[in-house]
What does this fold into?
Amino acid sequence: MIVVAIDGPAGSGKSSVARAVAAQLGFGFLDTGAAYRALTWWALDRGIDLSDEDAIAALLDAFPYSISLDPVSERVAVGEVDVTAKIRDPLISLAVSAVAQNLRVREWMKDSARRLATTSGFPGVVAEGRDMTTVVFPDSSTRILLTAREEVRIVRRASELAGRDLAETTASVRERDAKDSNIVDFFTAAPGVTVVDSSDINFSDTVSAIVDIVRAESDL
Ligand code: DC
It folds into this structure.
């Protein structure tokens, strides 16, 4: 079972790059941010105060989370509710960092990601997030930090979020990276982690660069 661990900041393109890498290799794709988003959606839906760490942690005992690892059709559900689109709402993006800073949540997420990867049914999994290379899959054969210069990340994010202006996107990307990096440092590569900087290369070259690294490192 091969795990390709990819971390990076908001707007580095890691989700779409990781998904395309998985599709090319015939691997599963595990978007670990989706679980943090789904838990945030569930907490808000139940009217729970996100700063109440105990109340959020208590939700984990019966969090009915599911995600498909198929790189061509991601589906995320909480119980019977399909939250695939709901968790991309800018309100969730704004609120999710509070939930991601809860250490009991992070512990649950770590176990959940490992379980999802080992039971995926795919020959390998590309797992993407903020702590894949350092905490969740520190022993995986390929570990990558996907970065891009801040101005490039902001322009990419703004074009994803149609209707948002650059100043607003700049503020939100900076705020989220600042909050998220309180807990895990996803700007610096840990020892043994390969840095791929996508600032000056296009999407398909970024995907090919990572596929080449995986092939070289895991004898595929
Ligand atoms: O990658 P994303 O924007 O969907 O992530 C949503 C949030 O979850 C983000 O605020 C960072 C957090 N996160 C995390 O702390 N650790 C992960 N492995 C994945 C996401």
User: Anything to note?
Assistant: The chain has a mean pLDDT of 93.
